[in-house]
Amino acid sequence: MNVISLGVGVQSSCMALMACRGEIEPKPDLIVFSDPGWEEEETYEYSKWLKQEIEKYGILVEFTSNGNIREDLLKAAEDGSRVASLPFFTLDDEGNTGMVMRQCTDEYKIQPVRRAVKRFLGVKTAREIKEPITMWMGISTDEIERVKTSRERWIINRYPLIEKMMNRLDCTNWLSRNGYPVPPKSSCIGCPFHSDATWLDMKRNKPKAWEDAVMVDKAIRNMPRMKGQVFLHRSCVPLDEVDLNEDQLEFDFNGFGNECEGMCGV
């Protein structure tokens, strides 16, 4: 069985469409997108188009979720309930800074995809799976550090874009050359891994998303269960007060190594 873990970013979208056209074989049995509930509107619009396009080729696409990470964060900030933490930046009373261990990728991305595979196979536990499934990951050559062997005995990770020696630009060019729209970056609106260029682009061009990120940043400042104050920006300064070098940053540096492309940590 072959499964694509779809992040709806440039690389995984390119990989999925290449598989549809037979440029990567074999034909996938299932494609799964796990929605954390806090992507930008453009990503959701693209994901709907992509699902319809893929299904023209007779491939099953499932959208799944483990809840809404934004709503879960706000609830945890208010009542102290447990929530999978983002890689927040922290500042204690002595002025020491730190970073919170990331749990969001596993709980909002990886685990929902695995549950979807089990549902597809009609099993409840991994022990019931007799032969390993092959999980395709949309990681390109410029992210080679993210290539990992699966720790699960029932999953074999495969990296088709690495096999084809394709980087992100190659994926963008392939999409354009074949008449497909290029997707926006896929990541949570308030992902602490955003580069300053990404934050600045959001502030300048996506006021609704920016206002939402600023609001959440303020709400999590004194999160129960966390030591010290909590911030979305690495400077440990309130997001709406961060110096984003607005006079100097005039283009997107991309920051591929630090951006979450919807498959962060996979």
Automatic annotation (TrEMBL):
<dbReference type="InterPro" id="IPR014729">
    <property type="entry name" value="Rossmann-like_a/b/a_fold"/>
</dbReference>
<protein>
    <recommendedName>
        <fullName>3'-phosphoadenosine 5'-phosphosulfate sulfotransferase (PAPS reductase)/FAD synthetase</fullName>
    </recommendedName>
</protein>
